[in-house]
Design a protein that fits this description.
about 325 residues, alpha/beta, TIM Barrel, two-stranded antiparallel sheet, 15 helices, about 50% helix, about 15% strand
């Protein structure tokens, strides 16, 4: 996951000198953080180091990060005028530092290592902008959905356009696949997801598919409506630990890839237990093509680096044994 670097001393050392946004905007630093997990862990792909809120700034949203509290939106979206004031932008100009990072990482990476870009899905980005930061219940967001569906539609249309353009620009810059990151979709009922969210994610994923750009559709807490995630699209769908990989793949369909689904908390387990949990997921995949072994969400900051290596080594040992 993109947060793999958070558990590494090299990343923590950088964070003592620079803020998160400073690292994102300094191409050399963002490149270095992107490459750190690849060099130290031997994973098969690099995940672009960026932040889900980066497109918010050129939209006209002011934000920063509060220590221990995450992002804080200074001018949240609450009224019709707030949506009207959101600007259109060209990511090739306004987010050029992200694209420069992709180009630099691509030069540094071996041709055998893929680079995956990402962006927040419309619902997840909208929820940050409306709530003013993280939320437990998404009360303002859900109120807008149900009480001001016209306003919700205008907001989602603007974010959808910006997100598609941003991901397309990442692919142009050298990302071989892109991930649409709907972290908070699990806060919704299946009915709300289908009516208020699915059409916008679907529009992005369909347009990316038409452009020949491979996609991963990421979400958490959505095991109860994986059929709707499939309908929304993506070449591969991420699943978390709240549903078994075997059952999830059956629901998604074997014509789709699947990414997942080790519980990040498992990485704090003793090595033998961690190895067993990893093997269990591999066993559920049954050697079927299309499984991207991954966590169900991001690496926890307190994760021992050696435990990350155990997971990588276990997966590679399993793969080698299966192919021999």
């Amino acid at each position: 996951m993109r947060q793999a670097g958070r558990s590494m001393q090299e990343y923590r050392s950088l964070r003592e000198k620079y803020t998160l946004l400073e690292i994102c905007k300094k191409t050399e630093l963002a490149c270095e953080v992107t490459l750190q997990p690849v060099r130290k862990l031997g994973v098969d792909a690099a995940i672009l180091f960026a932040d889900i809120l980066l497109p918010a700034a050129p939209l006209g949203i002011s934000f920063d990060f509060s220590q221990g509290e995450g992002p804080v939106i200074r001018n949240p979206i609450r009224e019709a005028g707030d949506v009207e004031r959101l600007r259109s932008f060209d990511p090739r100009e306004d987010l050029s530092f992200v694209l420069s990072t992709i180009r630099l990482v691509r030069k540094e990476l071996s041709s055998s290592i893929a680079l995956i870009g990402f962006a927040g899905a419309p619902f997840t980005l909208a929820s940050y902008l409306i709530e003013g930061g993280r939320s437990d219940y998404y009360l303002r967001t859900k109120s807008m959905m149900h009480q001001r569906p016209d306003l919700w539609e205008k907001l989602m249309d603007k974010i959808t356009t910006a997100t598609f353009d941003y991901l397309s620009a990442q692919a142009e810059a050298g990302a071989q696949a892109v991930q649409l990151f709907d972290s908070w979709a699990g806060a919704l009922s299946p009915e709300d997801y289908q009516k208020f969210v699915l059409p916008y994610s679907q529009k992005i994923l369909e347009r990316l598919a038409q452009a020949g750009i491979p996609t991963i559709h990421f979400s958490t807490g959505t095991g109860g409506f994986l059929d709707l995630l499939r309908k929304a699209g993506g070449d591969a769908l991420s699943v978390d630990w709240r549903i078994s990989l075997k059952e999830a793949w059956k629901k998604i369909g074997y014509d789709k890839g699947i990414q997942g689904n080790l519980d990040p908390a498992s990485l704090l387990s003793p090595p033998e237990i961690l190895k067993s949990l990893t093997q269990n997921i591999l066993h559920q995949a049954e050697g079927r093509p299309g499984h991207i072994f991954n966590l169900g969400h991001g690496v926890l900051p307190q994760t021992p680096e050696d435990h990350l290596k155990i997971v990588v080594e276990t997966v590679k040992e399993w793969k080698n044994a299966s192919s021999s």
